[in-house]
Design a protein that fits this description.
The complex is a heterodimer of chains A (239) and B (287).
Chain A (H helix, E strand, L loop, with lengths): L2 E10 L2 E11 L4 E5 L6 H9 L6 E6 L2 E2 L5 H4 L1 E4 L11 H10 L9 H14 L15 H14 L4 E5 L7 H18 L2 E6 L2 H7 L2 E6 L2 E6 L1 H6 L4 H8 L1
Parallel strand pairs in A: 3-8, 3-9, 6-7, 7-8
Antiparallel strand pairs in A: 1-2, 1-4, 4-5, 9-10
Helix pairs in contact in A: 3-4, 3-5, 4-5
Chain B lengths: L16 H30 L4 H8 L2 H34 L5 H13 L2 H12 L4 H8 L8 H12 L1 H14 L2 H8 L4 H30 L2 H7 L9 H10 L3 H29 L10
The chains are: A alpha/beta (239), B mainly alpha (287).
């Protein structure tokens, strides 16, 4: 799905988290929102997901105004920073949650839900953990379960908030490839937030560098490396 | 952190053995005099004329009415306060708004206001001499000297228990799981039942237990609003007081023993909860 951000701004009280920013995300792209903390990248991601509403501006999905859509109507697969798995549910129940939450008319049957959950567990390469609880999983496993849970709702896009933030370096590298593979298999438009320039450069097709609520530069990783648009970008990507 | 070899130095926070033992003995003596002795005295007095006499006094119509009324009051006010407590905690922890700190202070108000004052407020508000109360009495629904007044007084006094227990737990758990449920397509209502409530269930039970104990034991506010009409508005605590004033010591203490047993049961359940679900309670976070 093609996403268009048109002059979006967001104020929290008197502080501006986002100055009007515009950005076009081509359908099927893997995009990184890169910037230090407080740069507005998470706010922008949450606006896309419908968890925050912009103070001004519009969001367009495939050319249609989606600004007023509720979080449920957005159908965005959202992976939270600390994964936000439901701690009292098994992995299976976590992944099935979105399907069970559908209205009766569109809800798949029980065996169908089980079949889809099994398939997703295979996709994240953890076929045998359905009966476990989140507290019994490693950080990397939790991240993959969160991804499977987001994918279960057949989302129109995938939004990830610092998906590798809480992991150690080795697991991080593995999961990066995992996300790339899942993106390539599903073809979903994917936006992830990160403060790690190496991660952004290595994984994304398109990198959006942000600072202080503004977009500093939008470009392919190699272009940003070769021609940083501002002093901030140059400093940040060489840091 | 004791070593297997003889420790030559004391830890910085450790006292000399003499000081330690003095403090321990003082603490136990204090507990014995202030808590255990009166508790035992209640049961000794209750059984002064034997178990039969004690049971017989409990079977008297007045005692049975009092027990029935107190249980009814608790059965109505505790669920209502649980619902209000959840609503208040939900509102305070899941939304940002001005005046939040003030609202939290307001929730604590019943803890700092004397129950007698609370009772008087209800009499002033809903008594037959007030506009609202007079109208209600004319319609045939008296508040004061009737069950609604007792429920109001009990709810006022016990309001903070559930909210106070839930607020810290819900703050610590944050909003991420609820947000996750919403992005997965769940409605707000479904999110509450399937995510929020299961996450706070032990804390809620803990709050309800404390609320219930206080609801059944409340004296001051209830004494003011109920009028202590025997067989009608006399609860266990107010009946105990009346029996005691009439020198019916076995009857008074038998009823007191019932209340004490209920309190001990509460304490037991509370301790069990603390042992099994300490991580999900606000009262004793063990980090």
């Amino acid at each position: 799905m093609h996403i268009e951000i048109d002059e979006i701004s967001k104020d929290f009280g008197t502080t501006a988290a986002l100055h009007p920013v515009s950005l076009a995300i081509p359908s099927g792209a893997l995009v990184a929102l890169l910037g230090p903390s407080g740069s507005g990248k998470t706010t922008l991601l949450r606006i896309l997901g419908g968890l925050e509403f912009p103070t001004s501006g519009r969001v367009l999905f495939d050319g249609q105004d989606a600004t007023g859509l509720t979080v449920q109507e957005r159908r965005a697969g959202f992976v939270f920073q600390s994964y936000a798995l439901f701690r009292h549910m098994t992995v299976f129940e976590n992944i099935a949650y979105g399907l069970n939450a559908r209205p009766r008319a569109t809800r798949p049957t029980k065996p169908e839900i089980a079949r889809r959950v099994t398939k997703l567990l295979e996709l994240i390469q953890l076929p045998d953990i359905g009966a476990r609880f989140p507290s019994q999983l490693s950080g990397g496993q939790r991240q993959r379960v969160a991804l499977a849970r987001a994918l279960a709702i057949e989302p129109r896009m995938l939004l990830l908030d610092e998906p590798f933030g809480a992991l150690d370096a080795k697991v991080r590298k593995e999961l990066r490839q995992g996300l790339r593979d899942i993106h390539d298999t599903t073809g979903l438009t994917t936006v992830f937030v990160t403060h790690d320039q190496e991660e952004a450069m290595e994984l994304a097709d398109l990198v959006v560098v942000m600072s202080m609520g503004r977009i500093e530069q939008i470009g392919k990783p190699q272009d940003i490396r070769a021609r940083p648009a501002t002093a901030f970008v140059r400093d940040f990507i060489t840091a | 952190m004791s070593d297997t070899t003889a420790p030559r130095f004391r830890a910085a926070t450790e006292e000399a053995p003499a000081t330690r033992w003095t403090l321990i003995v003082l603490a136990f003596a204090g507990l014995a005099i202030l808590v255990f002795a009166p508790l035992i005295a209640v049961f000794v007095e209750a059984l002064a004329d034997g178990v039969a006499a004690s049971l017989k006094s409990l079977a008297s119509p007045d005692a049975r009415d009092a027990i029935r009324l107190t249980l009814t009051i608790a059965a109505i006010s505790v669920p209502l306060n649980a619902a209000f407590g959840i609503a208040a905690a939900w509102f305070i922890t899941k939304f940002d708004f001005r005046g939040k700190a003030f609202l939290i202070t307001l929730i604590d108000l019943p803890f700092s206001v004397s129950p007698v004052v609370a009772g008087l407020c209800i009499v002033l508000m809903f008594g037959a001499n007030s506009a609202v109360g007079g109208w209600l009495v004319a319609q045939g629904y008296p508040i004061v000297f009737a069950m609604p007044g007792i429920i109001l007084a009990t709810m006022f006094v016990t309001f903070p228990f559930v909210a106070r227990e839930l607020i810290p737990v819900m703050i610590e758990q944050g909003r991420a799981e609820e947000e996750a449920a919403l992005t997965l397509g769940a409605s707000g209502w479904r999110t509450f039942w399937t995510v929020t409530l299961p996450n706070i269930r032990w804390a809620l039970l803990y709050g309800v237990l404390l609320c219930n104990a206080r609801a059944m034991g409340e004296f001051g506010a209830v004494a003011v609003v109920s009028g202590k009409i025997r067989g009608e508005t006399a609860t266990i605590p107010t009946t105990i007081e009346m029996l005691y004033q009439e020198y019916l010591s076995v009857a008074a203490f038998s009823l007191a023993a019932v209340l004490t047993l209920l309190a001990l049961l509460t304490l037991l359940l509370k301790t069990l909860l603390e042992l099994r679900h300490a991580d999900q309670l606000a009262a004793n976070h063990r980090h």
